[in-house]
Amino acid sequence: MNGELYVKASDVVRTLGGDGTFLADANRFSYIAPSAVPDAVKKVSPATVGIIGKPIGNSSSSDNRYNLAHGTGVIVQSNGLIITNAHVVKEMSQLIVVTADGKQYKGTTTHIDEESDLALVKIEAEGLPTAEFAKSSELVVGETVVAIGTPISFALRNSVSVGVVSGMDRSLHSTYRLIQTDAAINPGNSGGALVNLKGEIIGINSLKLSAAGVDGLGFAIPSDTVQYVLKHFLTYGYVKHPGLGLDVEESWAAIVGLPTDEPLRVSRIHPGTSAASAGIKEGDVLYSIGDKNLKSIVDLNEYLKQYLPGDKITLTLQSGGDLVQKEITLVEIKTN
């Protein structure tokens, strides 16, 4: 059968052949058709754009017409609204957006959120192809993914690389969790799409978290976070990041990525906040918010995404040797 090799086993087996790839266990077969990657690319590539402009603040070469920076973006609304990385457009002027069909548009950065490293760029256009989002929470490690972007040179727009989901819930000192992938992500891919084989966006690639000279170690902002930020951009004009009105520090084990049950510790109280008036003190141990136990700062940030500033929550803390509950009102964290 076209050179396929079928291997029967009670555990997991891999079957490779000219017609595709089978992954199987005792109860389940999953077939990756040879057209799966091209079909996914065909669906998403028309909504992928290149973004190029002049770096801000480099006065020594401001007159050099070749002194340009570039990245990638994904069209999320047919009227020309594009999601990209904040670090792509934060220090870029005279933006030009080039769509997959080669048309050029003047771009304007309309929204930016450095905490999530996401931004919106607007072009004056109608009827553009848009990308669809999947739930990144449904991803599994080992799943095949496709990265689409503008690596190294602007002439390489809509380049494609293929890999797998290497890991989930990575933090790397970022505010929110990240997807790890071994799909090739190079300079210029930032802001581009990480796509599943259904042609749905599962993440926005963020190269700034990938060290130079390291192979197969890229990271993307999960689509769930992208949609959270996008909703705030369109509803409020910016991201309303909620905060407790206090700073916490995580355990050494959490910092280095070891599994831990050690809770967060209050390191500073912000004057004039509900946390201060509730009598929470430095050195108190934060065990949970509501019924959720939190072990890291990233866990806390992810949990708070379901709330808005002004919402009330209940903290369970150890204070002065006693286990106490304190109701506080969330404050708004100004980031930009």
Structural descriptors:
336 residues; 24 strands; mainly beta; PDZ_sf; Peptidase_S1_PA; serine protease; 6-stranded antiparallel barrel; 4 domains; serine-type endopeptidase activity; PDZ_6; Thrombin, subunit H
How does this structure look, described?
With about 325 residues, the protein is mainly beta. The chain folds into 4 domains: about 1-35, no CATH class; about 40-120, Thrombin, subunit H (Beta Barrel); about 135-235, Beta Barrel (Thrombin, subunit H); about 240-335, PDZ domain (Pdz3 Domain, Roll), CATH 2.30.42.10. Helices cover about 15% and strands about 40% of the residues. The protein is built from 6 helices and 24 strands. The chain has helices at about 35-45, 85-90, 225-235, 250-255, 275, 295-305, and strands spanning about 15, 20-25, 30, 50-55, 70-75, 80-85, 90-100, 105, 110-115, 120, 145-150, 160-170, 180, 195, 200-205, 220, 240-245, 245-250, 265-270, 285-290, 290-295, 310-320, 320-330, 330-335. The strands form 5 sheets. The chain has a 7-stranded antiparallel beta sheet. The protein has a 6-stranded antiparallel β-barrel with strand order 11-12-13-16-15-14. Strands 18, 19, 20, 21, 22 and 23 form a 6-stranded antiparallel beta sheet that branches. The longest helix has 14 residues, at about 225-235. The radius of gyration is 23 Å and the shape is globular. The protein starts with 12 loop residues before the first strand and ends with a strand. Residues about 1-30 have low confidence and may be disordered.
